[in-house]
Amino acid sequence: MADDCLPLIAEYRAGLDAELALLRQLDSLSVRQHEATTTGDHAALRMIHDARDRVMCTLVSVEHDLRSVRARLAERRDELLSLPAFQSVASLHREAADMVSRIIASDQESLRALQEAEQARRAAASAMERGGTTLQAYRRVVAPPASGAALVDRRG
Fold first, then answer.
1. Are 70 and 9 in contact, with CB atoms under 8 Å apart?
2. How far, in Å, are 17, 139, 141, 143 from residue 150 at the CA level?
């Protein structure tokens, strides 16, 4: 009978609610990370990274605790489909999956922005090196080394 799984469904729902709360935090941090990436705010990026690590550790712990509950529900999925409580949990599960996809997409955009910033930094450093070499060559032409002292030393 499917009704005997109601406590299991309630436990899974509580776990999903906790995961969704954590995913909302990650989603918010992901948006802030993207903003900090585009503005080059490295201090904010460090703080966001630390916050994301803490949230992810908690999320992994909750997910670990839910693994066995999810497996037991999956074994009886066909008989549970008719229960409104199970349908509600399935809807929450889809919401969590959608949020994960959105966070991953935002992270990929941030990663691309960081890679572009790194390429721009390297190009700027290369241009500065070339400019420095050109400036040194120009300096040799405009201000050649003084050789007057050698003349005095030979006659004296």
1. no
2. 85, 21, 20, 17
For the ranges 10-14, 25-29, 118-122, which has the lowest average pLDDT? 118-122
Please name which of 89, 82, 96, 93 lies closest in space to residue 7, comparing C-alpha atoms: 89
Interval 89-143: pLDDT, tens: 999 999 999 999 998 998 888 888 778 878 877 887 777 777 666 667 666 666 6
For the entire predicted model, the pTM comes to 0.71
Write the CB contacts of 85 (distance below 8 Å, at least 6 apart in sequence). 6, 9, 10, 13
Residue 108 lies in a domain: yes
In which domain, by residue range, is 32 found? 2-114
Domains of the chain: total: 1
Any domain includes 119: no
